[in-house]
Predict the 3D structure of the following.
Amino acid sequence: MGIKSIRVYPGSPWENGYNERFNGTLRREVFNAEWFTTTEQAQIVIDHWLSQYNHTLPHQALNMRPSIPETTLEKPPISGPDTGG
């Protein structure tokens, strides 16, 4: 997907606004909305939220498309008489 890591120095969150926005969104929508009793429970809720965030939620910076649209996901091959399968 072309993602590269960059060095953000401690105490300098303004150097990576995308990361800070993601962290704030995760905090508001998951951590402030749920009370977790186990790390397993937290992982399940976070995984579900991440799936929605990446595959369903429209992102303003991407012209209201999800960050990982369905077209980039691996799909099973189509077989049939017209496809040679």
